[in-house]
Specification:
By secondary structure, the protein is mainly alpha-helical. Helices cover 75% and strands 0% of the residues. It starts with 22 loop residues before the first helix and ends with a helix. GO terms for molecular function: electron transfer activity; metal ion binding.
């Protein structure tokens, strides 16, 4: 036992301090975050449906909270999360067809997911606000 070799000192596993954030890595993290946000945002959808199905005062409470600036900000974020997560799913669907794996294609798809989600969210809200007026 006295002659056994000493422990080999190995480096720790690399983590976020080592890696440079790449667009595909960031979009993967954001895709997961939007999935979590949609999970909790579904509570708002259920609240809206229950309020609409119950009394006018319950629906009035929901609309007053959702119509406030903080409520609209949350709904805007929920809309963006929904669209971004859907576009991320389309990106993964493209990968499932064994396409888009080139270095430039991966970065292009990641950037298109981000730009597309922001653009479509703004379009949805502009149309929604125009129809409300």
């Amino acid at each position: 036992m006295a002659d056994s070799p000493s422990r080999i000192v190995r480096p720790l596993s690399p983590h976020l301090q080592i890696y440079r954030p790449l667009p595909t890595m960031v979009m993967s993290i954001v895709h997961r975050a939007t999935g979590i946000a949609l999970y909790f945002g579904t509570v708002l959808l259920i609240w809206w449906l229950l309020a609409a199905a119950s009394t006018p005062s319950a629906y009035g409470l929901f609309t007053s909270i959702a119509g406030s600036w903080i409520g609209r900000l949350v709904l805007f974020g929920y809309t963006w999360a929904l669209i971004h997560h859907a576009l991320g799913g389309i990106r993964h669907l493209i990968w499932d067809t064994i396409r888009g794996f080139g270095a430039q294609e991966r970065v292009l798809l990641a950037k298109l997911t981000l730009v597309g989600s922001v653009t479509l969210t703004i379009i949805v809200w502009v149309i929604g606000l125009a129809l409300k007026s």
